[in-house]
Amino acid sequence: MSSKHLIYIILTALLFISCSNDNDTPVAADTNITDSVLIEINKLRATGCKCGADDMPPVPALVSNSILAKTAIDYAHDMNTRDFFSHISPEGISPIQRAATAGYTGKYVGEVIARNYNTPAEVVIGWKNSQDHCKAMMSSTYIEMGTGKSGNIWVVNLGK
């Protein structure tokens, strides 16, 4: 065997070793998808929309907030791993309590949640078709947001 061939085999083996997962645990699928969801929600906010029977006028665009994004990611992960789906955790913790624990100092926090959507555009349409979620997205009370996704669960935390 030539020395070039031996070096190639060693380098290939090292590549596979360095890319393997030592404990065979899956890589977390929890993600911050704030930017893509923010674009979709701000499209609605810019034009206004109908939430149920109510006409919602245009409102100012939301901006991204990293603390709200972390809160959303963590809560999406919690719902996904513990297999529940609710704005209130099994321990009775609300969205504003979760945000405050993460360091958010705003006075208002709202939340929209969804599951089984594939894209940011689809999930925002789903929320638009739910009167309460639509009104939350269109509320001028909120000025910032963060979004998280884990598995098939989406969470948006809105705040001011």
UniProtKB/TrEMBL annotation:
InterPro entries: CAP_dom (IPR014044), CAP_sf (IPR035940)
UniProt cross-references to CDD domains, sorted A to Z: CAP_bacterial
Listed Gene3D superfamilies: CAP (3.40.33.10)
Signal sequence, start to end: 1-23
Pfam family membership, one: CAP
Positions of the SCP domain: 40-150
Keyword Signal set for record: yes
Top-level lineage group: Bacteria
Keywords: Signal
Keyword Signal: yes
PANTHER family linked: SCP DOMAIN-CONTAINING PROTEIN
Entry protein name: CAP domain-containing protein
